[in-house]
Amino acid sequence: MSLHGKVAIVTGGNSGIGKAVVLALAAQGANIVIDYVANPAATDALEQQVAGLGDRAIGVEADVSKVADLQRLISATVEAFGRLDIMVNNAGIETRTSVLDTTEAQYERVMEINLKSAFFGTQLAAKQMIAQGSGGRIINMSSVHEDWPMPGNTAYCLSKGGMRMLTRTAGVELGPHGVHVVGVGPGAVATPINTSTMDDPQKMKVLDAAIPLGRMATPEEIGAVVAFLADEGATYLTATTIFADGGIMHSSPGL
Ligand code: BGC
Predict the structure, then answer these.
(1) Under CATH, what is the fold of the domain 7-243?
(2) Residue 135: other Cβ atoms inside 10 A
(3) Which residue ranges make up each domain of the chain?
């Protein structure tokens, strides 16, 4: 596996799954643009880690829920590295609110950060890749919840359901240009988005029992899937989602 000479953007790249994706792509030789909205110190530290692997990384502060910021992110990438080969639409949030109690502001925030960012990230990355003429990979960080209801997290499920169809539809449209669009559907991963679960031993017991592999994923296990999808080994994948969920989506509660 080698991504030498490739350039990747990872949105929401300085923490959680995004950070693991940055390191997994850099380990294969890619140069990386780390998009972030908070914690510049974490971005600086990650840039150093990437440099330690022999690659280059730059941090760009951009709110990917805004199209103008996404455009600036792509321009900064081309300015720094001359091209874009891999776009990882990873930034995401959840509110853990039900259909009965989600506010308009919560709804809009989740949809803008999770789905609007991926839609326009896909559009703008694809335009750059088509202009380069050498195809590319767009990887959408989805969830088992693109398919599987999570009661009490309604807007999040809606955004991931939208991402599912973004991946499929854009994959079909962009295939003739050599631009592959693939989703990654993790289950429960040990990242800050799951802090409320990880801080509650009772909830962790129930969660671990529901996962056939018996534990949450590490962020690195998801980074490894993205590195595979970004590489020349995954030449026949597009318009689909690869689930990496330890089997949780298909497990029964054991009743
Ligand atoms: C959600 C987590 C949840 C996990 C498994 C993820 O997409 O962000 O809150 O624990 O799915 O249900």
Answers:
(1) Rossmann fold (3.40.50)
(2) 16
(3) 7-243
